[in-house]
Amino acid sequence: MIAIHAGNTVPECDQAWPKVAAQRPEACPICHMAGHMIVHGRYPRQKPLEATPEPPQPVKVRRWLCTACKHTTSMLPDIFHRYRQYTWAVIGAALVRRFVLGQTWSQIQAELSQMPADVAPAPSVDSLRRWCQAYAGYAQAWLKTMLAVLATVWPQLAQLNAHGVQAASPPQQLMPATATLASWLSPARGALAATTVADLRAVWRWGWNQGLAAQIQ
Ligand SMILES: [Zn+2]
């Protein structure tokens, strides 16, 4: 899979489809051979859920076939998490509320849900718990990898300062490290006013594309 940026919302992604459809990946993300990618149809991402009562609007996802290794790969807009139905705007906001603001599940749900009073609030507390548990489960490994990268490019990083930094849990430390990595990845370095949700998305792209070079050309 290749994560692409095609707008910040479901409607923006929908509008960007003609551009996305014409955007051919240079090389295969699996075998890395250049010039072998051919169009292999598209599929609808069925349930891009947001915390609103509007029915989910399917978003088209372009699929490519590599004629060298015969594997298919899709270009998934980065408003989506690869495996979860809710968009990053909802998942990211939940993670920030839990790990930065220290909110309870019911506080998070009350602030994110835009559902009318007569139906169940969305997302469910079960979903919120699952997202936060998954994030916390990866935090240790992600933080280690991220700090190793940032140590070579960001000498001022607070997390690398042995003096005066309060000990925090890996999920808490990962949030500011994520923001730092995202601003370093940004083409307009230093001028970035990205939200933390966009930061989390950037790290996700970075992780799946498995390399910084793809993001900073
Ligand atoms: Zn290939």
Give the SSE map:
Elements: E1 2-4, H1 10-15, H2 17-21, E2 37-45, E3 59-66, E4 72-77, H3 88-99, H4 105-112, H5 125-153, H6 170-185, H7 196-209
Parallel strand pairs: 1-4
Antiparallel strand pairs: 2-3, 3-4
Helix pairs in contact: 3-4, 3-5, 3-7, 5-6, 6-7
The helix-and-strand class reads alpha+beta
Q: Approximately how much beta-strand content do the residues carry? A: 5-15%
Order of helices and strands: EHHEEEHHHHH
Ligands and ions found? zinc ion
Unreliable runs: 189-194, 209-217
What is the overall silhouette? globular
Mean pLDDT, to the nearest integer, reads 77
Number of strands: 4
Strand order, sheet with most strands: 1-4-3-2
Helical amount among residues, as a percent range? 40-55%
In whole angstroms, the N-to-C terminal distance is: 19 Å
Largest sheet: 4 strands, mixed
Radius of gyration: 19 Å
- For the record, the count of structural domains works out to 2
Number of helices: 7
Oligomer: single chain
What can you tell me about this protein's structure?
With 217 residues, this protein is α+β, with helices and mostly antiparallel strands. The chain folds into two domains: 2-77, no CATH class; 88-211, no CATH class. The protein is 41% helix and 12% strand. It contains seven helices and four strands, in the order βααβββααααα. It has helices at 10-15, 17-21, 88-99, 105-112, 125-153, 170-185, 196-209; strands at 2-4, 37-45, 59-66, 72-77. The chain has a four-stranded mixed sheet. α3 crosses α7 (196-209) and α5 crosses α6 (170-185). The longest helix has 29 residues, at 125-153. The radius of gyration is 19 Å and the shape is globular. Mean pLDDT is 77; it is low at 189-194 and 209-217. It binds zinc ion. Zinc ion (ZN) binds at residues 28, 30-31, 33, 66, 68-69, 71.
